Input
Amino acid sequence: MEPRSLQDVFRILDEMQSEAVVERFAVVGAVATLFYAETIRTYDLDVAVLLPAEPSPAGTILTLRPVYDWLRERGFRPEREHVRIHDVPVQFLSGDPPLWRDAVESAREFDYEGVKVPVAPPEHLVLMTLEAPSPRRRERGALLVESGAVDRLQLGRLAARFGFSLPEAWRA
Amino acid sequence: MPDPRTAERNRTLAAKFDWHREQARLPLREKFRILLELQRQDAPILAARGALEPWQRPWRIEP
Output
């Protein structure tokens, strides 16, 4: 069998959207950072998803089950909080929180070896690193800001809109 | 005139900054190749420390 590539992983995600399993998705986290800044070490691929709007019975919690079911049908099995797609552990996260929804809806489309890859904008990625700060996340945020990919005015506007306080060095 | 040591320090920092910017501008495929290489180098070190989560292993995949 021909060795799989990251292109195949991104193709599966694209198919998931074209088959309306998800309404939209965007790559987030360390892999998303790589699209704008230098490579940092990571072992999983985080994907924020918006599910198609369907009426749900009152009191029920919307889950990512349709995503897992669709992937299972294609032979990709969950392993704890990940689904391994062509050996890449992919973690699906709800894009429902306001910042995340905006990140998915305003994702930038990249071309990876002929496959479309929506990636959260760098300003959203920076704010996401402030949601649950850790030294590693803070480093990732700084890397993005220093990469030159971040529009600091836009970062400031988003921070105000979503209620974040930016470190002094990241302000415009 | 700036202190020679300060000037030297500033030159070093500027060169580092430029290097990081260049890394950020590498083609995506090259960045993913670096990521896979980092995973391969890092995994045995983490494993030896017993700090490797089950999902933390190098991706057996091409960039």
About this structure: Chain A touches chain B at residues 3-6, 8-9, 31, 34-39, 41-44, 79-80, 82, 84, 86-89, 110, 112-113, 143, 146-149 (CB under 8 Å).
